[in-house]
Amino acid sequence: MRRPIIAGNWKMHKTIPEAERLVAELKTLVPPGGPAEVVLCPPFTALAAVAGALKGTGWGVGAQDMFWEEKGAFTGEISPGMLRDAGCTHVIIGHSERRQYFGETDGTVHRKVRAALGAGLVPIVCVGETLAQREAGETEALVVSQVEAALEGLTAADLERLVVAYEPVWAIGTGRNATPGDANAVAALIRRTVGKQWGAEAAARLRIQYGGSVKPENVEELMREPEIDGALVGGASLEAPAFARIIAGAAPER
Fold first, then answer.
1. How many Å apart are CA 128 and CA 218, to the nearest integer?
2. Domain annotation covers residue 205
3. Domain span holding position 40
4. Is 95 a catalytic residue?
5. 203-225 confidence digits (pLDDT tens)
6. Taking the model in full, what pTM does it have?
């Protein structure tokens, strides 16, 4: 049985005091333990503060990006070791906003995935199509190519240490979301793609999240789908009551 994983991507929101207040409120709303793994992904400036506030909870702390080199003349970049030093356990890689606005490519995603695994971080590897690509019937080919490029050269053991997040670009921050059936179909495609190269057992163990306007109102319906193992949550993770309800809905009866 794959354990659900709910990750909150705060994007460019929350100062350190605001982050600490959000964590404090979440801790009063979400009981310890529970069926789902929880990961909070604040901006770089708040990583250490959030990691400190989460000590003893069992929750993870994730960065929203990283560079693939450990050190060097790379002004403005953050290395895997620096993330570990700040208390990170996870890192989001290849988010569509990084691809759209900051030149992220399949090649750089691959380098970051390998570097994250080498540093003992859990990569949350994002894949997904734009609206134009979806309307052109390119979803399957694009998602397969993104998955294959990101995971190239990895072992089955490596795959147990990462998460893939399917996030249709057209559903991020728009209020629109893929239907549960559509999201499940793409998650199943990702699992088949992994199975062809790494075998059925590795594919069965891989956790696949859905991301794209996940809300308290739709999380249970999404999570009932057999191929969806969690959610990468954007805007709804910025409000403690909403995010707590999403965590609570992470493991409905299927």
1. 19
2. yes
3. 5-248
4. yes
5. 999 999 999 889 999 999 999 99
6. 0.96
